[in-house]
Amino acid sequence: MNSQTIVAPMTPAGVSAVAALRVSGSKVREVVKFLFGTAAEASLKPRQANLGTARQNGNVIDSLLYIFFEGPNSYTGEDVLELYPHGNPLIVRELMQAIRSVDGVRLAEPGEYTRRAFLNGKMDLSQAESVADVIHSANLAELKNAHRLLSGALSKKVKVLTEQIKDISARLELDVDFAEEEADPDYSTWGKKIAAIRESVESIAKSFRGKAALGRLPLVVLYGAPNAGKSSLANALLGEDRILVSNIPGTTRDFVEVRLFLAGGEIRLVDTAGIADKATDALDALSMEKSREILEEADLKILVVDGATQSPAMQLATQSSAMSLLPATPMSPAEQPQPTPDLVVLTKQDLWGATEVSEIAKPATEAPGVAKSMTAAPEMAPKSISVSAKTGFGVDALAAALNSRLFKENENPEDLWITSEREKACLEDALAGIDRALDLIRKNPAVELLAFEMQLVRRALQSIVGEISSEDVLQSIFAGFCIGK
């Protein structure tokens, strides 16, 4: 595979100011000669940006920048050429076709660049897997963790554990070789050392967070009475008019989902149909049922209150009665759980009197008109934030409140978590081997068996960083990568 030169775009398909392509392999210099001429190939210098006009059969493809990276000092460890044409898909397609017309050059497979980097010793397998996490992280916490994995933080931990096991294995195997010449080994010391290793391995294994959970964007749902200002609030958070707004109650009939970027990452923001105390028709009842359904999935429920006409206490009472009027479900209306807001937003602040403006992030039980009985424990009451979608008052404070609740800062910046099912399986295999070794020490302290089990533990840990790996494992890992990586 590595004898062939590969090419692929590094940027997504579509129109952009600049696109990027990468060529890797032994034919890189021939590609430069084919596109830019003999003089360009002869004067090629590593890591130097060059401006040239790419041609095929005398026809101009594009004027572009290109950079040559000489192996092994490149991403893949091979000769690499990066090209930066204009981001017209027609140019990218023509340039790709021209490069592939060079004998020995083919389209890269998914993840093949990173796979070559691993095979050429530019990174270990754990680091290679983290490349996909860097690309697909949905928030800053995930991105920071991915960068730590890519920098080798997990690899260093595994290396320390592997060295400790190697030391124990060497001493165990020494005892096996000279069992007749020396006194019985002190198994109590082996048990303590192996137990300490188990604690470290278990700590890493418990940090596992599946990619499915990490890739899921937090869901924030705006709900409240018709005409409370939910759609206007969503537009204000987005900074653009994405959702239809009018003074007519019931404009939003179905929930509308948009993507909102906060400081810590991206979220799903849902604007629901208003929940009234009585449905006006069957469609209105269905709209309220849909609102209830999406509320059940929400990570954060925001009760939107029309601060100019209705107090939060009245609004909560309205929601409670309205929810019981929704179409029948397996539970009776009386048994249906009522939505408890995580946050109360008082809208239309620009229409309030000067003395009525509540303080930002004040407990909702202290907001205008909210009864102390809203929650059993006042300290657990949802916060309230005053906003005006018209003037922008409080919108930034609301965005900051959402960010702090959904994307909590890691208390220990040195902590990391693993996201690979493969790494988790390797750690579980290591733990199983350690448990067998500890059981042997308690029941049947045979040095030969202990040495064998610790060899298995070491191999399981080495598999994490790819010191031991099979072709099937590599194929499984890199098949999920994008073509250009």
Largest sheet report: 7 strands, mixed
Number of helical regions: 16
Based on helices, strands and strand pairing, what is the structural class? alpha/beta
Q: What is the count of β-strands?
A: 15
What portion of residues is helical? 40-55%
Strand percentage lies at: 15-25%
Q: So what's the oligomer here?
A: single chain
Distance between the termini: 16 Å
Return residue spans where pLDDT drops below 50 for at least 5 consecutive residues.
248-252, 318-336, 353-380
Q: What strand line-up does the widest sheet have?
A: 10-11-9-12-13-15-14
Name the overall outline: flat
Radius of gyration: 31 Å
Mean pLDDT across all amino acids: 79
Describe this structure in words.
This protein has 485 residues and is of the alpha/beta class. The chain has helices at 28-36, 38-42, 89-100, 112-119, 125-136, 140-150, 153-177, 187-206, 211-215, 230-238, 282-297, 312-324, 395-406, 421-443, 447-465, 471-478; strands at residues 5-9, 16-18, 21-24, 49-56, 59-69, 80-84, 86-87, 105-107, 219-224, 256-261, 266-271, 300-306, 343-347, 362-363, 383-386. It is flat and about 85 Å long. The strands form three sheets. The chain has a seven-stranded mixed beta sheet, sandwiched between helices. The chain has a six-stranded mixed beta sheet with strand order 4-5-6-3-1-8. The chain has 16 helices and 15 strands. Helix 5 runs antiparallel to helix 6.
